[in-house]
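User: Some background: our group keeps a shared notebook of sequences we're curious about, and every so often someone picks one and asks for a predicted structure to add to the entry. Today it's my turn. The entry only has the sequence so far, pasted here. Could you supply the structure so I can complete it?
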Amino acid sequence: MFDNLSDKLDKALHILKGHGSITEINVAETLKEVRRALVDADVNYKIAKEFTATVKEKALGQNVLKSLKPGQLMVKLVKDELTELMGGDVAEIDISGNPSVILMSGLQGSGKTTFSGKLANFLKTKKAKKPLLVACDVYRPAAIDQLHVVGDQIGVEVFSDRGNNDPVAIARAGVAHAKTNGFNVVIIDTAGRLAVDEVMMTEIANIHKAITPQETLFVVDSMTGQDAVNTAKTFNDILNFDGVILTKLDGDTRGGAAISIKSVVDKPIKFIGTGEKMEAIDVFYPSRMADRILGMGDVVSLVERAQEQFDEEEARKLQKKIAKNQFGFDDFLKQIQQIKKMGNMKDLIGMIPGAGKMMKNMEDIDDDAFKHIEAIIHSMTPQERSKPQIINASRKKRIGKGSGTSIQQINQLLKQFDQMSKMMKMMQGGGGKRMMQMMGKMR
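Assistant: Of course. Here's the predicted structure to add to the notebook entry:
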């Protein structure tokens, strides 16, 4: 996410981050490079120019050149202005209605149907809501089937009417079904449409008028960059939507849409999609995103994700096992499963401050990062998992054959496991107790 932009901004601000001589001239040169980096990331030139002009004005107004740490202050100004450009404060979704009706709109292929499922899952698991998905895409082959598959996957009911080709009537019927059956959120999945298709744009305007949604959300593929921003404007002129959802932010995106869409349509980004799994949805925090763009990571989001997977009872059991020197590979496997639930590995590493540069050497990290480790552990006997010290040469040979891995990989895992076990044991005593509790909370 934003790898190229982060790299270019880091280079642009490199001179000012040091303690060398900083003048009005090299501030101007730096901001020129910042502007170029933003334009390369597909941010509208006018927005990029206004952005750097504002930063320069604030920099000179706050006497950055005379401050004790001018470089740090300059980076903070860029970060604050980026945050403001992307919306400033977090924008909550309005689910105060009974039922709350959410209308999903967007282009063909933007990921509306998948994200409708993600949003339903989010509202069900994080907000304790009872959502209903309504299938109003009567044009795309298998669109209704896709929504039913998504609904089954997350345990959410889907309302559809296969014999009806009128999406306005289906939307009305879906809302009525929700009122009758105790659903408190209705998510209307509509057909993708081109902004230039007048008939289709009129149709979604009619759906909007018929159901008067609490929230109208525009779903946009962030990889389409500036085109996405222009399309958002056309949709907003017709629907006057309440917020934007950016999908596919885990892809090779330049970031232009995320940075400039708020400025163009004056509507906040409410959610982002960060992967293919149903859990890969995040509330959009402009300040956290600005931190990530500038390579500062996003520790708050990382801790929040970790705490969602944190099981207090399991942590207590684990502490007892470590104290008695009984931590085994079954326990290790549980820890891996918890980490995997937090999201894809590249996204998680990107939340660690300073990890941006490290990521360049980690192109192969993906959701299969733990695959060979899991295969090795699954090929062990219960006794070997609880007492790794009994794993001798012949056992390693059998484990390697069963897991499709090499003796070298098995040795490496055993060595890492031994080191980790010793470290955890050390942390049980005295000064490490508090740190152990912190680690428990961050799992």
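Suggested note for the entry: The longest strand covers residues 100-106. Residues 430-443 have pLDDT under 50 and may be disordered.
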